[in-house]
Amino acid sequence: MVAPGRQRRHLLESTDLTVDRIATEAGLGTGASLRRHLTAVIGVSPTACRHTFRTASRSPA
Fold first, then answer.
1. Which residues lie below 8 Å from residue 44, measured CB to CB, with a gap of 6+?
2. Distance in Å from the first CA to the final CA of the chain
3. Nearest-CA neighbor of 42 among 13, 5, 4, 16?
4. What is the Rg, in whole angstroms, of the alpha carbon atoms belonging to the chain?
5. Sign of the C-alpha dihedral computed for residues 45, 17, 34 and 4 taken in this order
6. For the chain, counts of helices (H) and of strands (E)
7. Is 10 exposed, middle or buried (0-12, 13-18, 19+ CB in 10 A)?
8. Which residues contact 54 (CB under 8 A, 6 or more apart)?
9. Cα separation of 2 and 30, whole Å?
10. HEC profile for 16-33?
11. Nearest to 16 by CA among 52, 51, 59
12. pLDDT of residue 58
C-alpha cells in the first residue's frame, strides 16, 4: 500500500486527473480538502505542485 502523501504526489505528477479525483482516490474527500492540505503542508496549490514537479521531472539530468 502506498502512503497517502506519496499517492497524492504521484497522482499529481504523473496523471491528468482532476484535483477532485485525486482527493477522492487519496482519501481526502474533496478537491478543497486537498488544496487546503497541500497549501498547509508545502505552501503551494495542487496546480503549482503539479507544474513544478512535472517540469522538474522532465528536465534533462
1. 38, 52
2. 30
3. 5
4. 11
5. negative
6. 4, 0
7. middle
8. 13
9. 19
10. CCCHHHHHHHCCCCCHHH
11. 51
12. 53
Longest CA span, the chain: 36
The amino acid present at 43, given as its one-letter code, is: G
Neighbouring C-beta atoms of residue 45, cutoff 10 Å: 14
The 10s digit of each residue's pLDDT in 15-60 is 999 999 999 988 888 999 999 988 888 888 888 888 887 765 554 5
Are 32 and 20 spatial neighbours (Cβ–Cβ below 8 Å)?
A: no
The conformation of residue 44, written as its DSSP 8-state character, comes to S
CA distance 39 to 58: 24
